[in-house]
Amino acid sequence: MSTALAALNTALAAPAAVVAHHPGYWGPGFGWWFLLIPLFWILLFGVLFGVFGRRWRRAAWENGYGPHGRVNPAKQAEATLAERYAQGDIDEVEYRARLEVLRANAAPA
Questions:
Q1: Per-domain boundaries in the chain
Q2: How buried is residue 77: exposed, middle or buried, by Cβ count under 10 Å (0-12/13-18/19+)?
Q3: pLDDT tens across 66-77, in order?
Q4: Distance of CA 105 to the CA centre of its chain
């Protein structure tokens, strides 16, 4: 029984001896692996944003949002009329008459 107690005492005293000889040593611990955890999450969110963000932007673009989004049809018609007047296709009287008709029939903003 005394040999069993001596072996147990030696086994329990060994880690204390290691810590006493190597101050600051707390066992295997994380080491440098703890840096991989935030790196993993940053990469995961970056990939998710890259994949799904592109899909959302493409869907928004196709539905008329973005820099070239939906154009007001009344403004587009006025721009076309102004372009035709500038090219000389219509004269000023016809331009003013058509512009008045466009603005009278335009939907309220």
A1: 1-70, 71-109
A2: middle
A3: 666 666 777 888
A4: 42
Instruction: Tell me how far CA of residue 56 lies from CA of 44, 59, 64, in angstroms.
Output: 18, 5, 12
Q: Left if phi > 0, otherwise alpha if psi is -120 to 50, otherwise beta: which for 25?
A: beta
Per-residue 3-state assignment (H helix, E strand, C coil) for the chain: CHHHHHHHHHHHHHHHHHHHHCCCCCCCCCHHHHHHHHHHHHHHHHHHHHHHHHHHHHHHHHCCCCCCCCCCHHHHHHHHHHHHHHHCCCCHHHHHHHHHHHHHHCCCC
Model-level pTM greater than 0.90? no
Tokens representing 37 are: 């955890």
Query: In whole angstroms, what is the distance from residue 3 CA to residue 97 CA?
Result: 115
In whole angstroms, give the CA distance from residue 30 to residue 36: 10
Compute the mean pLDDT over every residue in the chain, rounded to the nearest whole number: 78
